[in-house]
Request: fold
Amino acid sequence: MEQFTYQIELGEDDERLDKWISSARPDLSRSYIQKCIKSDDLLVNGKPQKASYRLRVDDEILFHIPEAVEPDIAAENIPLDILYEDADVLVINKPKGMVVHPAPGHYSGTLVNAVMYHCKGNLSGINGVLRPGIVHRIDRDTTGSLIICKNDHAHNVIAAQLKEHSITRKYRAIVCGVITSDQGTVQAPIGRDPKERKRMAVNETNGKPAVTHYKVLQRFKGYTYIECQLETGRTHQIRVHMASIGYPLLGDEVYGGHKSAYHTEGQTLHAMVIGFMHPSTGEYTEVTAPLPEYFEHLLHIL
Reply:
């Protein structure tokens, strides 16, 4: 069990207990925090309080976070589009709508369920039972190449390359608006949106450094087809960066602010190329995921 202590300072008072904790711990959902409050895992000055309790200066909050109980994740015979495979790594072409790893309330039908069946237990265990083999991820509605690690050695090697930003990651996207410059770079820190914790945003105060390079491949009436190359790999990086300069991704209802005029089922974003130094041979290995059918169809229409 983890334990955290917080002291309320001047300017932080008169805020609801659950709201204050939600800001202090953006990794936890409001509903989970409220559940902890009801279970007396969160005390104010040694006493249980309601979620609506208004904080006062010098209040001391003691927060016991219960140990997570990780469920058994079942292997499922879900077809995989395999782009590359050997004894160390598996590169798959993730389809639109597939979640990468299980999460509360969503323990089946994920990529992890599928690779557990395919790899028959031969996966790295570094990220625990919920994320075996998972060293990085892409959003549910983003398609394309994703590396799965079959052993801990491969996981450590690939993770180190991700940390050093040495892995090649090229994406294809269609954005709303016509970009006039042929190429550009967005360099802006990304962190939690202070107004909406489920979103990310350009956050100069608490964001982590993020760099996205883009180049125009084709211009249409009202839209632009681009390639983005990641220098860093923050959550929703391309979606946040392109929206921040006025060119949100087509179909992105979270950062685009409006529904798409086309049937996209989420953002039009595809992880096309991934390149890495192989964990065993040390040779540079590059894999390309072909554009999905819906993406090709959109380009044809535009």
Q: What stands out?
A: The longest strand covers residues 168-176. The chain has a mean pLDDT of 91. Residues 108 and 129 are 13 Å apart (CA to CA).
